[in-house]
């Protein structure tokens, strides 16, 4: 019997995840719970020693990299790093982890005395990156690049028979729970991180599986196999 796996993240990442799910022999069901809406914001990076991206959505929302291609770029993980390189940034360094790992990377590789940091972020941010870096002496500006708009009703796909629902963000997990979490007690919640698992855990599941590392390949291995 083919495993049916629902993907709740927004496009265009949802389609990329679907390809990876299918490559592992499972059926991918697109069921986005969020819509990403770009916001107009100041993209001037003059005087900054680094730009920080905590999601691929932030990279996609950065409208023009030409004036910032030589800036040092720090990313929370490898997927975001790949998106930054594809966008034209040349000096890209990945924390390959979570916000805590990203803060540690910044403290290790940057100097508080060499200019401010610019965090290109969404309207919902996990952890306190700004607070941790300010405590280490850095000046950091958080610029709102996009908003994640939650659905007001469940996608029809989530009302069909499923085996696994994948959550790549706490925001998506919170939205699913807020919309009633139908049939969750018969399903596996696949969560990219412990923070996301905590959000999903506000309702009852057959089981909750957390990736051993906050990377999609680890998430798919834990939930889909292959």
Automatic annotation (TrEMBL):
Biological function: Catalyzes cyclization of the linear tetrapyrrole, hydroxymethylbilane, to the macrocyclic uroporphyrinogen III.
Kind of enzyme, top EC level?
lyase
Superkingdom of origin: Bacteria
User: What reactions does this protein catalyze?
Assistant: hydroxymethylbilane = uroporphyrinogen III + H2O
Q: Which UniProt keywords apply?
A: Lyase, Porphyrin biosynthesis
Q: Boundaries of each Tetrapyrrole biosynthesis uroporphyrinogen III synthase domain copy?
A: 16-220
Q: Which protein family is it in?
A: Belongs to the uroporphyrinogen-III synthase family.
Question: What Enzyme Commission number(s) does the record list for this chain?
Answer: 4.2.1.75
| GO MF terms, alphabetically ordered | uroporphyrinogen-III synthase activity
Protein name per the record: Uroporphyrinogen-III synthase
| Pathway membership | Porphyrin-containing compound metabolism; protoporphyrin-IX biosynthesis; coproporphyrinogen-III from 5-aminolevulinate: step 3/4
Organism this protein belongs to: Candidatus Viadribacter manganicus
A Pfam family hit: HEM4
Q: Which Gene3D superfamilies match?
A: 3.40.50.10090
According to its UniProt entry, one GO biological process term is: uroporphyrinogen III biosynthetic process
